[in-house]
Amino acid sequence: MNESNANDMIIRLLSVGFPDKGLTKTVKENEIIALCRELVKLNILEFICIVIKNITQLNAKIADNNENKIEVKAKEIFLNQSSLIEIDPPVRICGDTHGQYGDTLRLFSRGGFPPTSNYLFLGDYVDRGRQNLENICLLLCYKIRFPNNFFMLRGNHECSNVNRVYGFYEECNRRYQSPRMWQAFQDTFQCMPLVALVGERILCMHGGISPQLKSLQQLRQIQRPCDASGPSLEMDLLWADPVVGLTGFQANMRGASYGFGPDILATMCKTLNIDLVARAHQVVQDGYEFFGSRKLVTIFSAPHYCGQFDNAAAMMIVDENLVCSFQILRPTIGRGITRMVPTSVGKC
């Protein structure tokens, strides 16, 4: 199979694999075993096809040993790239997806499947959703296949003390009876970069800015693997939040890191010579929300979050001239489908 045929197959399999087309079924044990045997022979592009066809369409499971292969390869790729990823636009920036695999596929359907579009995801791939393994495995496959076009930052839910509690550990055990596989994911998560810089002007992270942050060089020097479980610059990048009406920093209501006000944001943008901070970490009603005279934007990419919120999802499109616009994925109330509504906001 050549690259063109493989990419065409990925697109075709994705197009018939959406949950709203009613293709999710139960897979028998012997089918999973047969699939696992075949996976040993496949390259990564063919593996992406199998993931999509047999997990999305049939709710199948990937073999434990093949998951470990993905994690090991992804770990190597993450460590081979800088702790501060410097990305040339154009790029599409996505926030939390939290195991909402069908909605992740809809984001790709609207924005273009890799490598037709460049992507930066801001973390929180697991926990709370129903298909955490499908979500993280597909994204890691794309990272392996297109390391210079597809970028993933770490979120606070890519920390063992969090995803041990909020669903990912339980899913690994329920579907694989494999704490070993869960631990392999943690080893990979600790190698993920925490920050990215788009076009030298847009600083991206999962959480927010830190009182310890003084220069971009600090971000380039972050050591990985890192635990990020105690008070530190790394923790703030994963956990900090902007707070309306606040001046300065104050202890975060989450019990980790800080909240910061628009004054801190303005000073940080000037110090780092950037125009915008793009982050995720918080549910926002329209999928994106500006803060501090439009110097910060929160992006959230899981619509109808946890089945409890009536929020839209968004991805931010940054073009070659650093002009930003948003594409919106809105939930349709009372139905199991969503629809995309483009929204343009001009320059960031």
TrEMBL record:
SUPFAM superfamilies: Metallo-dependent phosphatases
Pfam families linked: Metallophos (PF00149)
Serine/threonine specific protein phosphatases domain ranges (all copies): 153-158
Location of the protein in the cell: Cell projection, Pseudopodium
Record's keyword annotation contains Hydrolase: yes
Protein name, per record: Serine/threonine-protein phosphatase
Family: Belongs to the PPP phosphatase family.
